Amino acid sequence: MRGIISFGGYVPYRRLDRSAIAAVMGQGGARGTRSVASYDEDTTTMGVEAARLALRPVDAEPRALWFATADPAYLEKTNATAIHAALRLDSSVGALDFGGAVRSGIGALRTALDAKGPTMVVTADIRGGLPTGADEAAGGDGAAAFLVGTEDDGPVVAELLGSASATEEFVDRWRQPGSPSTGQWEERFGETRYGPLAAQAWKEALGAAGIEAADVDVAVVTGSHSRAVKRVAGQIGVARVADDLSAAVGNAGTAHPGLVLANELEQAEPGQTIAVVMLADGVEALILRTTDALAEFTPGLPVADQIADGAEVSYATFLQWREMIQVQPPNRPEPTRPSSSAAARAQDWKYGFVGSRGTESGTLHLPPARVSIRPEDELDAMDPAPMADVGATVVTFTIDRLVYSVSPPVVFAVVDFDGGGRLPVELTDVDPDAVRIGQRVEMTFRRLYEAEGINNYFWKARPARSGSSSE
Amino acid sequence: MASHGIKDQVAIIGMGCTQFREHWDKGVDDLLIDSATAAFDSAGVAKDDVDAFWLGTASSGMSGLTLSQPLKLEGKPVTRVENFCATGSEALRQASYAVASGAYDMAMAVGVEKIKDSGYQGLNAAPAPHDGTKRNLTAAAMYSLVLPAYAARYGVDEDELRMVVAKIAEKNHRNGALNPLAQFRREMPAEKICEMASVAGRLSVFDCSGVADGSAAAIVVRAEDAHKYCDDPLYIKALSFVSGTGGGLIDPDYDYTTFPECEMAGADAYRQAGIDDPRSALAMAEVHDCFTPTEMVLMEDLGFCERGTAWKEVLAGTFERTGDMPINTDGGLKAFGHPVGASGLRMHYECWLQLRNKAGEDRQIDLSNRNLGLVHNLGGYPGEMVSFVSILGPEQG
């Protein structure tokens, strides 16, 4: 039986207190917080983080990588290839984007559950809207990744019992490419369309699973029409509707059903039936049952832990990061675009954070080198040294208020990796006043900057928040 | 294989140096013409007497044409060299070797930088095409790592150490105030520097070298010919250069309290010059005070004092112009200014004046017991740098 072998949700570190919006603007906002992707994150980098978390608990290797987002870092160019490179997947593993629509995330997951071979589905989104609008406050940023396959590929922790889809063309929410905000038709119209579509898909999915609604332990109900979502959640007749994380995270759009499902799976017991219903230009419905393997499954980093571990971002900084306001940059040259050919030659280093280690000395070289700094290593006597998942400790640090940055100041540290090796590296998700010598850090994949339309991806270090970096 | 040096084989017979400042009214060509003309006049020669030229500039022009065109040099070899902030010294090193080899009778080294036409603050070099993984950090921030590391290693209070390096800036400003060619002619008390906002680590803008335009030039001949042109030539005792492996960046044993490339270049220069104890042999040193902590560490790397003691010597006034070991008597990069390609030659220009007793009554150091001078010029960052050291003296032998 095909199902989910592993999964990981990613919630970025920063939170916007929704009440901060009205405090500045005089209107807008709401209660609670929303998650905020940092200035150096995009849907691709958050997808990498979720996929790394999903691969951490298991040995299995995906044979396909599908990436879905409504906020792609690139059009024309495939975004999944950067995730593919960061995960160091074999070149024979295909990487595809499911682009544009909020529905594409759940769609990719459902398609993977019908497909062949171990498939990694990565969903990510950055949700926003014009200042004071409902979407600005209600949106959230995040990512979720699922490794889908059969028992041949690895222990399945949640098997698919049945699924269904219902589709109809109607314009309820829309956005022109490049626009900062999403349009929405008068809400009551959408509700009249989503109701019957949900009933149809739900009935069909239950039928495919061969169960009744009352057999479902918990249903994840999400979508892009909040009134319809609420109504459907109240009507489907399940024992419990999942916490949709709206109080702390907000609606993470394309990634949202996956993020909420990951959170539920992290708290579920073996033998539970979990449904996912997503309302977006129609309805997607999945019914899963957790297996005994779930008891043996340790999440890379639970969603709940990530939610608990956030730190506030001011509304002014949020507006700046989302490019709603421009601030004066330092009077220094902007960075230049990375060379495509140089980046391609350095792919394992740049995307995979792979250094080299002298075969005799064991000395780590970051970036990888052909000639060792130790005389005992012969030319080219180097082994690849993947360091992305190795923890490190801050040896010393500095705050640079002069250098160009989208969000100054730059916090920079010299870090020593567990087991040997050192790198001077930029820190992120950190408050300058909170850095200290001896602090534990871990590597995170980020977009350093964009120049001439080219995104420059590389790694930074952030204060450790996952089990992997403990010494 | 050995670094033999060319002790006493080559002498400087003339030098020129422009004022270092924001030369809004002078371009690269003007600065080059001004320093070269001053050097020709100083040596009493014409441009046609010089057989070969080395031009040092980090980013103000490419190729020998940058010099041969404005000076209208006919049929002469001109080589443009670049070695980060040690570019000016590199030009002198190459010109000296060319003369020592016998290939030319007379050579000229010219350094220049036109920084202030960029429209940006500070120093900015256009990067070569790259893979986008190089660190994004100013030199100031890299050198700011020295302070906490030094404080931890030697048990010095961080606030006290911050004051120590501000005293270095204060001294260099005091020296610059006396120097008509220096960019900054105003004294700056250390207490005031400590009160300023930090821009990188604990460093303020006044812990950084002055950003200036400028040019300096030197003419060299074989030592035996020197007196044909000059009554009091300055002999080159040593020229050393070390370009690092960059290993400090990735070596967990490196602790940011020393610059091994500088220590190595210094040791090589002392060997070439036959100096056992630099502190007792040298009358003065011009060192690369790009940031105040750099000068402090260099005092130890160049053997002017024991490791862990430079901070005390700074407070004791050892490195003052009138102290036991005068350092950066012209104001240094801090107060004289730092037009990258010119700085190395500017440092030699100060030795040219001081060691020949020509610095002027109000600035002249005491030469009664010692008459050797040292120039130290580096480029790069802690962990990955190039370092130059020369030793000069007014007498052969």
Characterise this structure.
The complex is a heterodimer of chains A (471) and B (397). By secondary structure, chain A is an alpha+beta fold. Chain A folds into two domains: 3-321, Peroxisomal Thiolase, Chain A, domain 1 (3-Layer(aba) Sandwich); 340-353 and 388-469, OB fold (Dihydrolipoamide Acetyltransferase, E2P) (Beta Barrel). Chain A contains twelve helices and 22 strands. Chain A has helices at residues 19-25, 43-55, 80-86, 104-114, 134-138, 187-209, 226-235, 256-267, 303-308, 315-321, 340-345, 347-350; strands at residues 3-10, 14-17, 33-36, 64-69, 94-99, 119-125, 142-149, 158-167, 173-174, 183-184, 218-223, 273-279, 282-290, 311-312, 354-358, 364-365, 382-386, 392-400, 410-417, 422-427, 440-451, 454-463. In chain A, strands 5-4-6-7-1-8-13-12-11 form a nine-stranded mixed β-sheet, sandwiched between helices. Chain B is α/β, with parallel strands linked by helices. Chain B has two domains: 10-117 and 213-234, Peroxisomal Thiolase, Chain A, domain 1; 139-207 and 235-393, Thiolase/Chalcone synthase (Peroxisomal Thiolase, Chain A, domain 1). In chain B, 35% of the residues lie in helices and 17% in strands. Chain B contains 14 helices and nine strands. Chain B has helices spanning 28-43, 65-71, 87-100, 139-144, 146-154, 158-177, 190-195, 226-229, 260-273, 278-281, 292-301, 310-316, 332-336, 340-354, and strands spanning 10-17, 52-56, 78-81, 106-113, 214-222, 234-243, 282-286, 372-381, 384-393. In chain B, helix 1 (28-43) packs across helix 2, helix 3 (87-100) packs across helix 14 and helix 6 packs across helix 11 (292-301). The longest helix of chain B has 20 residues, at 158-177. The model of chain B has no long low-confidence stretch (mean pLDDT 97). The A-B interface holds A 330-333, 335-339, 342-343, 345-346, 349-350, 363-367, 373, 395-405, 410, 412, 414, 416, 420-426, 437, 448, 456-458 and B 118, 120-122, 124, 126-127, 129-133, 135-138, 140-142, 144-145, 148-149, 198-201, 245, 247, 249-252, 254, 256, 383.
